[in-house]
Design a protein that fits this description.
It holds the Pfam family Transferase. The protein is of the alpha+beta class and about 475 residues long. It is about 30% helix and about 25% strand. The longest helix has 17 residues.
Amino acid sequence: MFALDLLRSYFSAKTAPPPADVHVIPCSGLDVAARDIILTTGLIINARLDVKKLEDSLTTLIKHKFPRAGARLALRNGVYEYQVPQAFDSQTPAVIFTAEDFAEPYHSETRPDLPTHLEGSLPSVYSVPSAAFEVYLKSAKSPVSVEELLVPNTPLLHVHVAVFDDVTFIGLTSSHLLFDALGTGELLRAWTRLLNGEDIDAIPGMEVDIAPFESFTAPTELKHQRGWFVLGLFGQLFFILRFILRIFRDPKEQAYLIRVPKAFLQGSKRAIMENLQLQGSTEWVGSSDVLLAWWFKSAYSYRSPSDTTPIHIHLAVNLRGKPIFPGDSTLAGPYIHNAVSAIPIPAIPVNAFQKESLGEIALRIRRAILAYNADLPGIKADMQWRCANPLKTPLPCSARGEYTFHSNWRSACLGDLDFSGASTSAEKVRVLLSLGYVVSAKSIPMRGAGADLMEDADAIWMNQIRGVKDWENIRRSGSMVFL
């Protein structure tokens, strides 16, 4: 019945006007392309927080500073759009907020230990699936499909809080269409500022009608975005066959957390830079380049030395600070929706990760990033294609290649969030860990995807998704420590 009702509403919406009491803003091509990915972004806080303070402050923030976070999703005249209520009340809530209260400490034999006790000078894999914490970050009614979010008067944002005597879990669930990671960070930073007593008028908000990607909607002659592929019939069949074969050989995906000590990265970067200087080179690498180079060298270390399969790496890049918007401007204020594209690293053969040094792989990555950032017309052309073709999905690698996506959440500064204003104790409040999950009911293969989730004083925390057999091969290779 639900599917039938949704179908009726879809066809009636093709001719129906929008509700009279909403602001209507079309979703950008970046938003629409991510619509089926339902994400939960989670935070684990080292204190019991006051649930009412959390809910009241978030509702106030959305009402007065981020009404777009309280939007409804609609499909009207064949176009996805945000419908933002002009006023929020009990019948038109700004957010769906649910909570569970556990009147006991978190630690129990039936619960996984929080990985915050990990230490050591070398990178290590926390051998408890990161999904073990998901149960505390979502309610049973949290959405798992975009169809659920298309039901009239359904807020796009669902927040679930699980409170223990010593720990609080906060989970934000929505379609990726509403947030990217940095947009989530924008909302969370504003939330904690309000919680900690800052005047709401001093907190920057997001304009209800801002549409920065509207200028990229004109048709384009480009066939695809850079780094993506449009293959002929034979190429598509070969790509699909190889993809199915990889799934058949290693059907179950698994996500693990990886702790990479900052001292390890700094030492590795220092050695690379010293070697470049000895060669008389003026090139340089950043810590993020070294982190990625280490990860990919470790992940492909067990593959055959004769394996030349091209690996196509796509690195998420924040567009907010790039002068590509009307008048060659940047996005100066907070923007919670998708403003991220991908830097395609020129394909690297698998055996290069074994044969080349950490510095050589890091330089491959740094050169690609520098070339991308210097090509503003190319970035604009990418956005032109994506916004003109929101429903098209070219292939992320060549017919005989493999692909991987990596995001960097460190600029979202999730580890620095301060929820002291909602704490019920005098203990110093801090974020123990941030987490990210794809919770879509629709099967979306995520193997090869990874993210730098956050950093604390000592380490950077990554989340990586691979096949279970792939992880076992990495373990046997000895390229990283499994704890």
